From TrEMBL:
One of its GO terms (cellular component) is cytoplasm. PANTHER family: REDOX-SENSING TRANSCRIPTIONAL REPRESSOR REX (PTHR35786), REDOX-SENSING TRANSCRIPTIONAL REPRESSOR REX 1 (PTHR35786:SF1). One of its GO terms (molecular function) is DNA binding. Modulates transcription in response to changes in cellular NADH/NAD(+) redox state. It holds the Pfam family CoA_binding. Residues 23-62 bind DNA. One of its GO terms (biological process) is response to redox state. Homodimer. This is Redox-sensing transcriptional repressor Rex. It comes from Thermoleophilum album.
Length: 216
């Protein structure tokens, strides 16, 4: 049961709290898709590697969540965390760069849509990929069109699924186009202005993280 959402949820969250809430939301969203109606803090801990006490502390800071002996209501907690993270009822447009195997997999995945993000444009420089349909209604566009499309579609996030050798140039072009959030799937270390946030996703890092918990 959720009695209330704290007024503090309207304030800017500490980075650690926001990161953990995002992880909880990822697990809860998948649990919801699997038909789960409740989930315990212990289960959340097992999936996120966050201490159950920390989970309860994070959630209690925004209101009374859950019921002792029953756990958390998945639907209600998903709704409340989305409100806390300010993604409830909103859609954020994404531009994807790179239509290779990784780019196509990202474009076809539901993971962004599950959390209120929508891939509205895919760009590539390969003439053989221009015009290719990566998802029903979504075709690869020439890289030269990126700035116009970003402005027209109100893109707020750029996702890089490009070779490391060109990632910095794409990042520079995104910054020049006004994009302030970049998801980097390349191995490049990007240099961006302080107002731009870069999130780098690496399977190797995720494996190292998992291996640490296995060994300890």
């Amino acid at each position: 049961m959720i009695e209330r959402a704290a007024q503090g949820s309207r304030e800017r969250l500490p980075l650690g709290v926001a990161a953990r809430l995002s992880r909880y939301l990822q697990v809860l969203t998948q649990a919801k898709k699997m038909g789960r109606s409740t989930i315990s803090s212990q289960e959340l801990a097992e999936y996120t590697h966050v201490n159950p006490t920390q989970i309860r502390r994070d959630l209690s800071g925004f209101g009374k969540f859950g019921k002792r002996g029953v756990g958390y209501n998945v639907d209600a907690l998903v709704s409340q965390i989305r409100k806390i993270l300010r993604t409830a009822g909103r859609r954020h447009n994404i531009a994807l760069f790179g239509a290779g195997r990784l780019g196509q997999a990202i474009a076809g995945s539901e993971i962004f849509a599950d959390h209120g993000f929508r891939v509205v444009a895919v760009f590539d420089v390969d003439p053989d990929k221009i015009g290719m349909e990566v998802r029903p209604g979504l075709r690869v566009q020439p890289y030269a069109e990126m700035r116009r499309v970003i402005e027209e579609e109100g893109v707020v996030v750029g996702v890089l699924a490009v070779p490391s050798s060109v990632a910095q140039q794409v990042a520079d072009d995104l910054v020049a186009a006004g994009v302030r959030i970049i998801f980097n799937y390349s191995e490049a270390l990007l240099q961006v202005p302080p107002e731009v946030t870069v999130h780098t996703s690496s399977p190797a890092v995720d494996l190292l993280y998992a291996l640490y918990f296995y060994l300890t």
